[in-house]
């Protein structure tokens, strides 16, 4: 119902929806990144942006510059962190480094989910030494790093519902909020 009547107002790189304009720009196009002032800029997979050229700044920096004329700009950067010198790692470190902590269903202490704490039955290993992924999926559970109690998949929904974003960097720039969330928090099995 938000689609415009004219197909000319809805193309691949610029979409006009309900009085708003959404512009899509590739990180490999410095001229397009530098050409439009925007109050809101959302950058996805910033660690995969190409290296900056000699004349232009980084693609992420150019995108940030598009917001400087606005009093309260809104900038979002998302990415899978790749290396400590990458954009997302540096930006995350500036912020308050929020973690999504939920209560262990056994001891009630707030915990962060770590991959190392995901356990599954050793019987899921086949005779040829490879893992039977269906058996791994069926038997996987989370071992609390505090009490060693187990959280089953059916308990994960309540854990996620009660979890809260908790800042962990007391030296953060007060203008930056940063969040880290691993894929195993996803409530859908196909995302874990």
Please tell me about this protein's structure.
The protein has 192 residues and is of the alpha+beta class. Helix content is 19%, strand content 20%. The chain has helices at 30-33, 59-65, 87-94, 133-139, 153-162, and strands spanning 14-17, 20-23, 40-44, 74-78, 98-103, 110-111, 118-119, 141-143, 150-151, 164-166, 179-180. The strands form four sheets. Strands 5, 6, 10 and 11 form a four-stranded mixed sheet that branches. A three-stranded antiparallel sheet has the order 7-8-9. Strand 3, helix 2 and strand 4 form a beta-alpha-beta unit.
Please give the structural blueprint.
Elements: E1 14-17, E2 20-23, H1 30-33, E3 40-44, H2 59-65, E4 74-78, H3 87-94, E5 98-103, E6 110-111, E7 118-119, H4 133-139, E8 141-143, E9 150-151, H5 153-162, E10 164-166, E11 179-180
Parallel strand pairs: 3-4, 5-11
Antiparallel strand pairs: 1-2, 5-6, 5-10, 7-8, 8-9
């Amino acid at each position: 119902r938000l689609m415009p009547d004219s197909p000319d107002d809805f193309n691949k790189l610029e979409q006009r929806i309900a009085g708003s304009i959404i512009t899509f720009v590739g990180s490999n196009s410095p001229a397009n990144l530098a050409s439009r002032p925007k109050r809101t800029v959302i950058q996805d997979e910033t660690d995969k942006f190409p290296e900056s050229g000699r004349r232009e700044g980084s693609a992420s920096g150019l995108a940030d510059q598009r917001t400087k004329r606005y009093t309260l700009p809104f900038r979002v950067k998302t990415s899978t962190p790749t290396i400590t010198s990458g954009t997302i790692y540096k930006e995350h470190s500036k912020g308050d480094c929020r973690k999504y902590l939920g209560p262990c269903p056994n001891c009630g202490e707030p915990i962060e989910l770590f991959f190392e704490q995901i356990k599954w039955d050793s019987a899921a290993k086949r005779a040829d030494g490879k893992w039977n992924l269906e058996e791994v999926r069926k038997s996987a559970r989370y071992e609390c790093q505090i009490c060693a109690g187990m959280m089953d998949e059916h308990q994960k929904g309540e854990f996620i519902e009660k979890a809260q974003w908790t800042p962990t960097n007391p030296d953060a720039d007060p203008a930056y909020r940063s969040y880290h969330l691993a894929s195993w928090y996803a409530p859908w099995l196909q995302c874990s």
